[in-house]
């Protein structure tokens, strides 16, 4: 099935409620995190204007990724109507992305931001505030019992929510790769949201030492819902 | 050396002498050449002289001759004769450009030919320089070749693309007189051939008086190759052929010389004492007999159709190799060093047998092979003829071959192929229209060489046979694609790679695009491959060090493995330990029974011709006497219990099996077409409420199963076979299924890379296939959702229709069987259905991924979560 159609359908599936470092959270199969107590929605690695970033280097990827990503984000915002939104970094694929964004896409983004507290966490792709977009740009922010940053800090960090690694997981046997929320109940790494972003298997070396393997779960986004699976039941690749 | 049967039997000259060539007088070889032939006790062969005469008269020539006919020397003779007459260069004169370009499909072949030519050139006393230029040639040597070009340059299609995209191309080729294409039949069938045809068009533009010489094995339509060799331009302009005469609808063709094959090959089908299996592809039953044949001959080449068959046969042979005969393995995924070792040992006649795939199909001269064994059916008559030609390079002695059918249908197929070989039938595939992704790559290359005018480049490109019918509108869209991606939404103008300037030429906007072009030129897009490394045991230090490289393996295959699984590679049973960066780590397994049999099915679909022959044989009980008794009995029981379909009929059988109901059909159109057809029929049956659950396809038959009795549905009119097989299934059904199929995504990836949408390598960051910068599947989904008519989507559809999906064959089939569908409802499975029924369960049925597995795996954590207040709270 077309990945975009699948993403649309997933956005209508039931979310998974759980606790993270004592805070109640909702992992939504659209690929966003919601904190009911704070009325705050968190989304990571939008990679807006990725097509244009490649075009700047001579690879003309379709210029439709930003519109598609924003359309999916709009649906998630409609579902939760949050007062506050945190974008966990790599919101734009490169430093020029925000400034050179075509007017129509800029308009859609501003419409989503209107009436909300909007926080841009700086990422490695977009370390500076997005030019001419508004919102507040921070390196890290604390909301309730949780702290939000782009790159996961090394070692165990209770209450930290990050992105950057684009976690995906694969079931042993014949399963395909699924985007997932990776967590051990103490910290969490969010899936990447942008429509042309790839993924890194949670068993990859980059994830080593971040989770307590005993309790680590990949909350995998399937076709019809979101499924927490122990790391032990996963395979690499 | 016997010459009696070397008379050219079919000569047609359509080219008139061109104005710059001498009059076509009877050609006498220059004295030194005659002496050289005489000195060896030889005489020039008639086709060698014939080719020389035609070339001297200004014609381009196609030489079709079997192996061992002195084809290579014939191809080079015009060049060597011309070079022998050349006056010495005076001191101070500019260095001469390349005189003759030789293009071969394989690096190894170019090197081999260079070596073989050195001797005659030296012995004749010619002062001719020869050099190879391949991917392995050092940078220093390439530079030197540019400054001081050799007279004869032996190279590959990829290198030609780079040479013509260089700024100095006009100088480098300013003296070019001949281009020799070796193994042309194998070059022209792929995208590589399309790129090569475009390269040739550019060479003709640089040197309009250029002549081409094509060397080829026998093909079904030589006229196609004859057109390929010359300009197809009618409208004048550069490279226009002078030989259209008054017949405006005649296409320009090179002259054709055909040399009949030598002695008839001596081919036998193995008549095993053992039971021929119903299905499978391993021919394990015949191993003792194959081993006995190896023992009875000097050197045996064993051909199989896939890499995994090669692995299996090799392992099984060693299992029974009591005399420890030197038996080796050769296939494309093995480490290059290992392959070279096998090749060298082969040339030195140190091996008694080599198990090989198509990597040994082409040209390179092997030692004294006196037997070819084909394990599994050859799938095509021409392929069989070429493979048998690998035995015995002296064309006047018969080649000896044994066919070993792996199952009962293959017995019939082998019989049909054998008859075809005796009849000299050819079933090489027809040439396809030039691919658009290749065209995009070439357009950028031409901008890298120099600014171009669209009108001129269009005229040049349509002079190449594969692009002769390219509409101007499509060409313009490709230029737009190269410039800015060619999207309806115009937002990339400021990043354009090439720009239309005020003087009317398209120019490159930045030199870095030239560098990127050079790094990505070529049409060979490999599946993502990982290197297999052997480690002692699974420790952190061993993993970090890596181990001995055994070769490469498809990432897709590894995805089906879990650590601890064992599989066969390079003749060893390996235990999969895991993936580390771009390596697949393995240890030696303790068991010698691999757990995961890797079989991708037959690589080549059964050719249309052979399929027709098999149907004809099945339909005619009189011909069954040529088949072994086991197979004869099988067919006789089928006749008794069900129906033997006529040569143009499609037999459809329905019967219950356990709790399910089956529908089995026998189109004999090859696996690819059957998979497409199976997918489409399943969709239609679903709509007809027959509740189909899955299907399986072989080269010969398709079996579909479901919950409803399809036989009964047909009987009471709820299901109409005519409607089910109506040709309109190739419309919407095909489109909606194809669009989301992984086959199309795989095709898209190839088109995206070849067309330059995505770079394999980016300057400064060498990427392996695994680490591509962006997921083409995701790009495909976005493009399909937003601009389904984009030129690259069109290119992808065109590719998939002729390639992985074989839609044209499905379409021919549906036309053929209209009003010829024969239905037989049965109480139980028929004899003919047994082979395909046995495949069920061995093959995965392609279908929508379900969440069942995920749900199952999540149970434990869900329960834990429900019982506690969350995993870590």
From TrEMBL, chain A:
> The Calcineurin-like phosphoesterase domain covers which part of the protein?
41-133
- Enumerate the SUPFAM superfamilies for this protein: Metallo-dependent phosphatases
For this protein, the record's Gene3D superfamilies field holds: 3.60.21.10
A GO molecular-function annotation: endonuclease activity
Task: Give the Pfam families listed for this entry.
Answer: Metallophos (PF00149)
Supply the alphabetized keyword list: Endonuclease, Hydrolase, Ligase, Nuclease
What sort of enzyme, by top EC class, is this?
hydrolase
EC annotation from Swiss-Prot or TrEMBL: 3.1.-.-
Query: Where are the bilayer-spanning segments?
Result: none
For this protein, the record's NCBIfam families field holds: P_estr_lig_assc
Q: What is this protein called?
A: Ligase-associated DNA damage response endonuclease PdeM
Q: What is the lineage of its organism?
A: Bacteria, Pseudomonadati, Pseudomonadota, Alphaproteobacteria, Hyphomicrobiales
